[in-house]
Every structure is written in C-alpha cells, then in structure tokens.
C-alpha cells in the first residue's frame, strides 16, 4: 500500500502546530529553573556526539510512555507542570513529531529546538560529554 503522507509532510504539519525555539533562545534559558531541555536522541548518539548541558535524556521510542503517569515506565521529571519541556533531536525532525505527540497527549508546556543538535553544535553552544551527562545524572539519584 502506498503512503499517503510523506515524513516531510508530517514534520511540516507538526512544526506548524508546536512551539519552536532557536538555538540562541534555548541557550539563553539553559539556567532557567522553569526549563527542562530533553534530548530525545538514542543513547548511541549521545555517546558519539555529546549533548546539551543539564538536559534529560528520554529516547524517542520511550517518550510517550515516560510522560504518561499511568504508564509503568513513567518518569516523575515529566510531572512538573511548572516547567517547559524543550525537546531536541539531531536535526529537529524527530523533536517536532515528538512535541506534537506530547501536545496530542494534552501537554501544553512542550516545545522543540529548530535545527536540533546539529545546529546547536554548529552555533558553538555549550556541550556536555556523555560521561559528564552520566555523572550528573547519577549524582542526582
């Protein structure tokens, strides 16, 4: 059966419906306690490329399950309604689709970064190695 909508069409529709920030806008808000940046890339991408300092990693394949309080996989970090969750992926496509999915679940405090991690790196924004990310994560536990 042929597809009736391309992946680019899905991304364009999602982008039109979700809040989108530039790298500069998110970079300026990294220390804001009301912002939680969320890396939805696969752990292999984090190991290879690093990530955004202070982010929470929620792999795209588990995101909806980690957000839903009724799910056995729920992560309490997503229960803080006072925070805005700003998602990013490699290029901004997966994060647009993910932000749209979370909006469809009822979240109103979700956005994504235009251009994703590729633009983050290209613009010289700060980075955290995977080792630093793991150490920070385990220090909080």
Topology:
Blueprint: H1 7-17, E1 19-21, H2 23-27, E2 35-39, H3 43-49, E3 56-57, H4 63-67, E4 84-88, H5 93-104, E5 110-113, H6 116-122, H7 130-140
Parallel strand pairs: 1-5, 2-3, 2-4, 4-5
Labels describing this entry:
141 residues, alpha/beta, Oxidized Rhodanese, domain 1, 5-stranded parallel β-sheet
Describe the 3D structure.
This protein has 141 residues and is α/β, with parallel strands linked by helices. The protein contains 7 helices and 5 strands.
Q: Can you count the beta strands? A: 5
Please count the helical segments: 7
Main beta sheet = 5 strands, parallel
Overall structural class, as computed from helix and strand content, comes to alpha/beta
Radius of gyration: 15 Å
Let me know the CATH homologous superfamily: Rhodanese-like domain
Spans of at least 5 consecutive residues whose pLDDT stays below 50 are: none
- CATH second-level architecture: 3-Layer(aba) Sandwich
Helix content: 40-55%
One letter per element, helices H and strands E, the order comes to HEHEHEHEHEHH
CATH class: Alpha Beta
Counted up, domains total 1
CATH topology: Oxidized Rhodanese, domain 1
Terminal Cα span = 48 Å
Provide a short characterization of the protein structure.
Strand 2 (35-39), helix 3 and strand 3 form a beta-alpha-beta unit. The mean pLDDT is 95. 41% of the residues lie in helices and 13% in strands.
């Amino acid at each position: 059966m042929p597809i009736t909508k391309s992946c680019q069409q899905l991304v364009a529709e999602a982008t039109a419906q979700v809040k989108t920030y530039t790298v500069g806008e998110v970079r300026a808000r990294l220390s804001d306690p009301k912002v939680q940046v969320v890396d939805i890339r696969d752990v292999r991408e984090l190991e290879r490329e690093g990530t955004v300092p202070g982010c929470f990693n929620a792999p795209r394949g588990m995101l909806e399950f980690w957000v839903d309080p009724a799910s056995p996989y729920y992560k309490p970090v997503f229960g803080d309604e006072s925070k805005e969750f700003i998602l990013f992926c490699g290029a901004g496509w997966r994060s647009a689709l993910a932000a749209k999915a979370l909006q469809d679940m009822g979240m109103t405090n979700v956005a994504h970064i235009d251009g994703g991690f590729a633009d983050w790196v290209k613009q010289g924004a700060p980075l955290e190695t995977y080792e630093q990310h793991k150490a920070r994560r385990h220090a909080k536990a």
